[in-house]
């Protein structure tokens, strides 16, 4: 089914509505082929404690929190991937957010209507997902709220203290320590890079909906900055007019870490059993590699090193210095 023209908010509707205030990136979800295998991998590498378990999903804390990421099993006919990212909304109120989304011309729907169909069919729509449990009432605590951008990428709007088991202060976050200390200490979520059909249309959508501005540029692509001056969202692609020919794809999640140097991170990844990706080849699961962002893409002279790994399912994770903001400088700290 093609994207319905009435589903997408018009520019006039978005421009007339007040932006939704956000504090920054809050979490993300990895859809994986084997949750227990991925849990062992990420806890062994990062030493991340479990902060919630909900059905088959397991959420792991990043640094001292409140950031986290969730490991969830792939659905039928689905390949492992980064399913969505979440934005932290101060004063989270699901009903008020639904009203604000409506003011922006975003239509409320039911996600299950789109099971087995292209994620593009959800572009410009919002929906809630009821969490496992006995409660059927529409409450903040037992629902998650999503909106899909023009490329069908789901974005969760989340309470600042949510931990993967629901929204609101009444939802418990109970730490289960990792079996052992990890080799790499995480600090926070830094950014997501997403491939889209039209990066200009996508950036305008996020600017209007959340009031975001440019933090830096990597070549022609702006980085949409968030509240702390480090976090950002980056949308890479062409300028295809009209309805996208294919859904968007979150290429990688980037995490800022402690004790970053290119050499030490590669050494620790190798110690953990990952191997170097051969030059000129696509990444395979359990490999690491370095991309040097040169001055024409906003990097330092000689290149700002950006370190990547692929997990057991081949999902890409970037690791950077805790000052990284996507700009120039040896650590990408100059924005």
From TrEMBL:
Location of the VOC domain: 24-160, 188-322
PANTHER family, per database record: GLYOXALASE FAMILY PROTEIN
Name the record gives this protein: VOC domain-containing protein
Domain of life: Bacteria
Classification via Gene3D superfamilies: 2,3-Dihydroxybiphenyl 1,2-Dioxygenase, domain 1
One Pfam short name: Glyoxalase
Record InterPro entries: Glyas_Bleomycin-R_OHBP_Dase, Glyas_Fos-R_dOase_dom, GlyoxalaseI/FosfomycinResist, VOC_core
């Amino acid at each position: 089914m093609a994207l319905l023209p009435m589903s997408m908010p018009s520019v006039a509707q978005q421009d007339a509505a007040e932006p939704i205030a956000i504090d920054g990136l809050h979490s993300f979800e990895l859809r994986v082929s084997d949750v227990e295998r991925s849990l062992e991998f990420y806890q062994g590498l990062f030493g991340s404690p479990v902060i919630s378990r909900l059905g088959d999903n397991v959420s792991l804390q990043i640094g001292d929190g409140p950031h986290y990421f969730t490991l969830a099993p792939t659905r039928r006919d689905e390949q492992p991937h980064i399913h969505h990212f979440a934005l932290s909304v101060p004063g989270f109120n699901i009903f008020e957010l639904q009203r604000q989304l409506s003011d922006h011309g975003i239509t409320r729907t039911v996600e299950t209507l789109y099971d087995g169909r292209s994620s593009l069919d959800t572009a410009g729509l919002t929906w809630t997902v009821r969490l496992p449990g006995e409660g059927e009432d529409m409450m903040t605590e037992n629902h998650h709220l999503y909106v899909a951008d023009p490329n069908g990428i789901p974005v969760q709007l989340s309470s600042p203290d949510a931990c993967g088991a629901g929204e609101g202060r009444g939802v418990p976050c109970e730490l289960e320590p990792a079996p052992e200390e990890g080799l790499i200490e995480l600090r926070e979520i830094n950014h997501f890079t997403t491939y889209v059909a039209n990066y200009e249309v996508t950036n305008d959508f996020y600017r209007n909906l959340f009031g975001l501005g440019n933090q830096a540029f990597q070549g022609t692509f702006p980085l949409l900055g968030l509240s702390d001056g480090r976090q950002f969202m980056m949308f890479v692609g062409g300028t295809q007019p009209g309805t996208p020919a294919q859904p968007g794809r979150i290429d990688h999640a980037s995490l800022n870490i402690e004790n970053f140097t290119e050499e030490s991170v590669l050494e620790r990844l190798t110690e953990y059993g990952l191997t170097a990706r051969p030059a000129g080849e696509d990444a395979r699961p359990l490999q690491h590699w370095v991309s040097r962002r040169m001055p024409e893409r906003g990097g330092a002279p000689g290149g700002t090193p950006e370190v990547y790994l692929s997990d057991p399912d081949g999902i890409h994770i970037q690791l950077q210095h805790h000052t990284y903001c996507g700009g120039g400088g040896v650590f990408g700290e100059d924005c």
